[in-house]
Design a protein that fits this description.
145 residues; DNA-binding; Phenylalanyl-tRNA Synthetase, Chain B, domain 1; 3-stranded antiparallel beta sheet; mainly alpha; homodimer
DNA sequence: TATAGATAAAGGTCAATGATAGTCAAAGGA
DNA sequence: TCCTTTGACTATCATTGACCTTTATCTATA
């Protein structure tokens, strides 16, 4: 996919948040716009379309001297983990039935999926997924680059 | 039979998908139309008549600047597999909601899980799983021997 | 010294424009 | 008749810039 300016700014912000501890960064709107050689309102647009609560982010700001834009990634709320775990239980149960997978492999799969999706950070997860692409690709002939 | 424009565009798209690594391509509607010297809506027509879910394809698109049309071939599978796929769809949908995973990562995860559980042989699957144990173990400190 | 008003330094809003893709109905052709 | 082809019109997403609002700081004056 050809990346738009909006896409690139979005990525950039996410990298900054990933690097931060506290899942939070503060930027100067004008400065970020300068970095990407665009108008400041472009940044506002990116925030409005890619960093909403629905996307899992909260943005706050202050105008005037010493102003800033603060972007915080909110961690998924507690109850959600149990739903994912239930999904995984279900998936593995069906795997056992349909694909004749034994209990020990089933246990392993359960553990792997739970760890992958509920314990790893987004960055770690992406690293693991990209290696998984390579590994699986070996068998199904995907071209990885 | 004399090939219609629609036939030729269909063929062309299928060649592109065959060459692609992940059974998926992204095109610019206008550009493809240009290639075949026809109106853009002709491309829409081809997609609507030859690349439906029934034919084994999923199409997605985005309008506006840097827009695209994405065409994915989904491999058809026997009865019980559809239950696993439904499980995977559900799991990924919940992941998107709860863990704020974007569409592109979601697609990757779906593809990986489907391949891992419905396309690989038991032996291949076990090899991949053992690699996965190692990879994830790196991050969570599992002792692998 | 206290403070009101001026000025500077942020960020916000919104409408216009550009860049894509989608819809639909009419016309064409085998 | 049924499928294909075309094009005018529509919908959506991205980008820009003029104008607005808020906050901090400076300055003149009682």
């Amino acid at each position: 996919m050809r990346k738009s300016l909006t896409d690139r700014i979005e990525e950039y912000i996410k990298v900054l948040i990933n690097r931060s501890d506290q899942q939070q960064i503060e930027i100067q709107r004008a400065e970020l716009a300068e970095t990407f050689s665009c108008v400041p309102s472009q940044v506002t647009y990116v925030l409005a379309t890619r960093f909403t609560v629905k996307h899992g982010y909260i943005t706050e700001s202050k105008r005037g001297g010493k102003g800033f834009v603060r972007i915080t990634r909110v961690t998924p709320h507690a109850g959600s983990d149990s739903r994912l775990k239930a999904d995984i239980q279900e998936l593995v149960a069906h795997l056992k039935e349909d694909r004749h997978i034994g209990e020990s492999e089933a246990r392993l799969i359960r553990q792997l999926l739970i760890t992958l999706f509920t314990e790893l950070s987004p960055e770690q997860r992406q690293l693991v997924l990209s290696r998984l692409v390579k590994d699986i690709g070996l068998y199904v002939g995907w071209q990885t680059d």
